[in-house]
Amino acid sequence: MRVLRSPETIRARCHHILARAEAGQALAFHYDPSKLPATVDYVLDTIRERYPTLAIPYHSRWRHFEAGRADRWARLAARAGTLPAAERARIRFDLVVPSVLLDAGAGSAWSYREPGEEEGLGRSEGLAIATFHMFVDGLFSSDRTRPLRTDGERLSHLAELDLERAFQVRTDNPLVGLVGRTALMRRLGRALLDRADVFGSPPRLGHLVDHLAERAPDKRLAAATILGVVLDVFSPIWPGRIELDGINLGDVWRHPLIKAGDPTDGLVPFHKLSQWLAYSLVEPLEEAGFVVTGLDALTGLPEYRNGGLFVDLGVLRPKDPGDLHRSHTVDSPLVVEWRALTVALLDRVAEGIRTALGLDAAALPLAKVLEGGTWAAGRKIARSLRPDGAPPIRVESDGTVF
Description:
By secondary structure, this protein is mainly alpha-helical. It has helices at about 5-20, 35-50, 60-65, 70-80, 85-100, 125-135, 150-155, 160-165, 180-195, 195-200, 210-215, 225-235, 270-285, 305-310, 335-355, 365-385, and strands at about 30, 110, 120, 220, 245, 245-250, 250-255, 265-270, 290-295, 315-320, 325-330, 395. It has a two-stranded antiparallel sheet. It starts with 6 loop residues before the first helix and ends in a 6-residue tail after the last strand. The model has no long low-confidence stretch (mean pLDDT about 95).
């Protein structure tokens, strides 16, 4: 179990699949390394366009809260007044955790119109702004006098209709995975209620700050420790998938190229949303005075923007061209292989970009390459190739993975 929660295992197993692809032995994809330099250049151009001074922030949910060049968190923090650093961090955790967990693919037909705005926002930005307003309006709090908090009691009773209204879902504005998202929030609520040792009594999500602080007496926290805590306390929330020793593994899938010679044989862990959450907790912790170390221990995120970048630029090509015209389940060998190759290739792209810019991993960690970066480049190439900006490979999402 522990080995499947390790970012070292994620990286090692994904690079093993890339090595097999380099040998022409992948199941679903041809790998063309000759296209990788052009991909690095495309990402570099995107970085220079978005961050010409190379002052790149971390890839995290906080960037989506700034959609439309509006720093919504700064406005909310100002409204909340002067708060102790620890309480400010708790509020930021209360906001960002449910927002990240609700950030699975929305589908191309959905958008969210912010109050006072005429144009709607779709995809990740729309989901972020919608969840921001849910939080501000107290949807995640059972105490109406204290809306800026997320507690287990409220989440465990969240109704599908609550999210339907808050996401502005209608027949002409359908959101993929609404049922799955609601179930995920309810399970999150129950996880809080079941872990008073972490979330206190009454259980509040923001108390995770205090739990992490106990692991950092010198105010230094390894990124891998943050991910380990996230995987520990939130493991019960994921829908039933593969189990090992009676424990739900979460974002872990089977692929026949992985030979471990132990009970984890054939298993590839990704923990995409958990890593996305870990990245998104870094800024609140740093603002509260913690030093987060070893950020590059975490991996790139295996989702459809990063993965689509490599397909759209020809680095990866499905062996069956018909796969580009079919939809695929999350557990299909093609999707698992695509995600694994994405994680490994993001490391290769990061190396190329650092070399081109004359920077090392300390100056340009993977979290900044993703933000600068590969995610935006994946979106840009998708929009240039397809009118709706959809990814090149269609995945049937239940609202809890992509």
